[in-house]
Task: structure prediction
Amino acid sequence: MGVEVSVENLTKSFGSQNIWRDVSLTLPAGEVSALLGPSGTGKSVFLKTLIGLLHPEQGSVIIDGTDITQCSAKELYEIRKLFGVLFQDGALFGSMSLFDNIAFPLREHTKKKENEVRDIVMEKIDLVGLTGAEDKLPGEISGGMRKRAGLARALILDPQIILCDEPDSGLDPVRTAYISQLLIDINAQIDATILIVTHNINIARTIPDNIGMLFRKELVMFGPREQLLTSEQPVVKQFLSGDRFGPIGMSEEKDEALVAQEAAMAAAGISGGGTKEDFTEIIPQVQPNPGMPERKAIARHRERVHAMLPDLPQNAQQAIRRSQEQDDRLRSHRDAAAVVMA
Result:
């Protein structure tokens, strides 16, 4: 099973520029979480802090009982073996073939024989749809293919924690759907804790168990996906809809006068763009493919959410109940499909 990641009062700055402050959240073991936020809010910085590539000014990051902000280099090296990381640009070695890029963690951290390495690598290559491209260099393939190769490398050690920095970046909508399904299938297979940083609202609506959002150097909220999707907070509603009217501006923040002006324009019927879709209408969460095991995280997530349900807003409570009913029906259909396919 994946491990819990607990973040307490985390603050990060670069020189005099504060990126975010006092961020506290817990990534529940084995669950899929997503982190949203406008560009420039430090989401990628947050991922790098979780694996110890960046050191915060204050706060703790506790992974498998170890605070990586205080541990030794040797302890950090061991903790990092729990992670599989898909960086935004794939982060492949340009002078290595895709095969060697994907095989690198196996050769670095295990004593497997080369024939074993080849079998595992080719399995992951097939999983992400890159069969036939294993001998190519990163510079010889598209950005989307590099992203999929990066995902294969992130999965190569069957990690307990998977961090994905915009996994849909550079992918068309169809391959984005395949990557999303793959992450759910991987979670079903190895019960890994997964955190996805994304701007893709469809991913946020259909993949994670939990969603958080960063804005103005703070964590706006973190909780069950239904809580954020039904939120009445203006910044959340604006981000989900993609409307230019609201607290988020081109440089992230707007002054009060501009916000008031936009509110008057909206009241006058002037469009701020964006979708008019009702995000409070919760659409079903993606389920593992037929033949895959049940996600063990579902039962744990339900038990945890049930305990916090009375403290959530009424519309979030209702959405969670509807969502659980939808998921139960979908799992029944999936089980029936698996029987037919058997």
User: Anything to note?
Assistant: The CA atoms of residues 86 and 164 lie 5 Å apart. The mean pLDDT is 88. The two ends are 27 Å apart (CA to CA). Residues 296-341 form one domain.
